[in-house]
Amino acid sequence: MSLNAVAEGLTPRGGAPATDLVSSTVAPRDFVVMTAERVDRACHDALKSHYDRHPDIAVVLVVDLVGAHDIVAVAPYGVAAVVRTAELCDDPDLLQRVKALATEGGHRLPIGMGSCIRTAAAEPTRQQTLGQPGVLLKPSEVDVLVLVAEGLTRTGIARRLGRTPEQVRSTLKNIFGRLGVHQRAEAVAYAARAGLLWAMSDREAR
Q1: Which of 7, 17, 144, 181 has a CA-to-CA distance to 122 between 20 and 30 Å?
Q2: Rounded average pLDDT over 80-84
Q3: Distance between CA atoms of 175 and 182, rounded to whole angstroms?
Q4: pLDDT tens track for 169-187
Q5: Are 105 and 27 in contact (CB under 8 A)?
Q6: At 145, is the pLDDT very low, low, confident or very high (cuts 50, 70, 90)?
Q7: Full 3-state SS string of the chain
């Protein structure tokens, strides 16, 4: 699934104005509600495992923290709707409406997320900020992890990427938190298993 395909899936049929709440005319379907604090490795793997076993059952994801990149990362795994936990505090009936929408085959994202993804998909220079569907890490995080795999120090990585050592430290912290690991070797092992290191090498070769 490409980023453009994700954006296409968020576009209403019939040329209607693009919104973050999209109805559909497909047959009713089953769904499950999954909750998470953030779209980290545990959440990503749970969604992928659910989709592998039940591809016809949609997911309504209720999550504390979520960004546009996270939406793209889980897009291939049957996620029909995403709701921020804070939204439920402001609108207690929201989840029931979203469940009804998911049953009808519709889609729903937090306000502004859909338009952000559609805009980025239409502008090649911005696509890199969102990453690729199914890939948990952001491109900027993968860039750092590839150089970690090459054995570079924080200073060496900063010099290679034109960043400061503090920016690299912050990125590594985010990577560790997203993957649920505590050491560089564990993060590199995950990237290797996910094929991210080889994908980056192929990209650089072009």
Answers
A1: 144
A2: 94
A3: 10
A4: 999 999 999 999 999 999 9
A5: yes
A6: very high
A7: CCHHHHHHHCCCHHHCCCCCEECCCCCCCCEEEEEEEECCHHHHHHHHHHHHHCCCCEEEEEEEECCHHHHHHHHHHCEEEEEEHHHHHHCCCHHHHHHHHHHCCCEECCCCHHHHHHHHHHCHHHHHHHCCCCCCCCHHHHHHHHHHHCCCCHHHHHHHHCCCHHHHHHHHHHHHHHHCCCCHHHHHHHHHHCCHHHHHHHHHHC
Q: Across residues 180-197, what is the average pLDDT?
A: 92
Distance CA 117, CA 120 (A): 5
CA–CA gap between residue 147 and residue 157 (Å, rounded) = 6
Q: Which residues are paired to 169 by β-bridges?
A: none
Entry field: residues in the chain = 206
Q: Are 118 and 151 in contact (CB under 8 A)?
A: no
d(CA 68, CA 159): 28
